[in-house]
Amino acid sequence: MYLLGVGSAFPSNKLSDGILKDLGAGCSTSEQMLIERIGVTERSVSLPVDFVRASNGADVVEARKAASVSPTALGVEAAKRAMTQAGISIEQVGLVVADCATPYQTCPSEAQRIAGSFGVKVPSYDLTMGAAAIPMALNTLASWRDDRLPEYVLFVSTNTPSVHVRYGVDPLAARVFGDAACALVISRKHQGAWRVVSTTSRAESERQISVVVERSVSVSPASVASSEFMKDAVQSLMSEGEGASEGYFIGTGMLDREFHELVCAAGVAQERVVSVVPEHGYSLGSSAGAALANVWDKALSGERVSIVHCGDGLSAKVVLMRN
Amino acid sequence: MLHILGMGTCHPTTSIDNHFLEALDVGTNAQWIEEKIGILTRVTTLPVDYIRETRNQDPRMAVEVASMNATDLGVRAAEEALEKTGITPSQVGLLIVNCCSPRQTAPSEAVRIAERLGIKAPAHDVYTACPAFALHIDYLRNFNETALPEFVLCISTAVMTQHVNYNDRSDGAIWGDGAAAWVVSSKHTGRLEILDSMFTADPTRCEAVVVESQGFFHQDGRAVRDFSVRQTVRLIKAIEEKYPIDWKRDVFIGHQANRTMLEQITNNREIPASNHWHNVTYLGNQAGAGAPASLCMHWEKMTAGQHIVVAVVGAGLSWGSIVMRVTK
């Protein structure tokens, strides 16, 4: 199976640490420790900065009205870039699959809204897989029969958690989240720039739910994977298969800085651990795909990129190789 | 070859009849509801006093007062399906869930249900709203059989009454709440053998049926009704051309949108009432849970050799079908 194109999209509004500091509410010690493990310094958000300053915990319904871009629009933008890179048009896509934890509507599916924005009749539905969206989607599609996989599959992960953040009330969520979308064009019948070498996933002992999106988005520091778990999981995933510690690495989880440090501690060069989280904020399943878009043209023929998920009761890895 | 090994359902116990809706004084009456949509009662997770007093004008309040949420219903339906199959949660190797009315949009409904049931296997939502029964079966048929675990648990759960504006004379009459669950295996044979399935969509019409997150359900009623009848008839015709369907023996189950629509379909295909299984008359439209719940409720009536034809339509707009054969 091949990746023929990858696209990403971010809203243009930027929220710096300085703006958030001005909002007032401070973090507890445990929250501050978690923020250190995540390592976000700036966020791309769909909310105008003036709205954030004035919102003071505004409801999600009001935030959506103020937002400059919806998850659907962001997903469409990323999809267009992925299809341009793949050199295909939407009419050639045989299946649209989407992942979205922050939909404006719970019906129809996000995939149907995205496909509807393109004005095409195409099978479409959601596979909602959370932070592990990219490795799990590739793992799933790689398990399909040849005759059931369309010529081109468009997978989109899009999330705008910022509209669920109660700025001025929840300083932890305010510091963690940013908005992003990513899209992948996948095919088994046509060779692309990247080949899927292997996919693995396994359930871990306990299922922890660290991020909840309801009216507001919240992070539970007590449910975030411990440093010991992260260390063991990263070490385990990095020792799987030949050349497992070579190439580029992308983490899918919220604990971006910690993942970066653990991978580097295993002997991987700093610049080989790629992420969009520090400069755009954490956007659940979309962040890893957006990071992959950054690696797309950097890698040389034969180089690998490993996308690694550890947390929420699941470990997963997908290894891609540049053709 | 996939088999369905066991099924389960869960519905809330609170039922509201057409006279209750007439008493809301929103321009409808019991006779009109019965004649137009053929639903006599519907079940809801909302307290009747809450509906009477507020007409659910703030759906976010509904979440707070409801007796159960979609996760609760899904868990109970799953427990029944696992028990009837004779397996434990630890034997489930994959959980997939469809839910158009989740209380939370993260984590996925599947992860919430997995946590409640103690299922440690991978869990994710596979979602399209009403035609979920067909989507889930068709989705699982995509996999190489070696990639499928021994047992897959599928759930469709919905609490659409929590998204109903009871000042709307139609929406209040249509919707009910419910969940259905079914256990699928490619490695064990069960009473239902999957012969065929399909699922597709026309997203250019995705605005025809909408549920606002934190808000109301709304639809283009006439357009959706016309689409539903026409598309379901097309699905059945395609199955009739491909398989030796005999409506004197075989059974049809459609999307449980409303009974008059279903009767238009069965009249068109000359399907006798005895071989049309439905539950919408007394439970209301349970979105993606309606069709599988109907099958589950008729499980003991299945006879060996019978074909079960499921043709379902809904939001997206999307549609799909399943052809099953009763093995024993």
Describe the model.
- The complex is a heterodimer of chains A (323) and B (328).
- Helices cover 33% and strands 25% of the residues of chain A.
- Chain A is an alpha+beta fold.
- Chain A has a nine-stranded mixed beta sheet, with helices on both faces.
- In chain A, a hairpin with a 2-residue loop joins strand 13 and strand 14 (314-322).
- The model of chain A has no long low-confidence stretch (mean pLDDT 91).
- Chain B is built from twelve helices and 13 strands.
- A nine-stranded mixed beta sheet of chain B has the order 5-4-6-7-1-8-13-12-11, with helices on both faces. A two-stranded antiparallel ribbon of chain B has the order 2-3.
- The longest helix of chain B has 22 residues, at 221-242.
- The two termini of chain B are 16 Å apart.
- Chains A and B meet through strand 5, helix 6, strand 6 and strand 10 of A and helix 6, strand 5, helix 7, strand 8 and strand 9 of B.
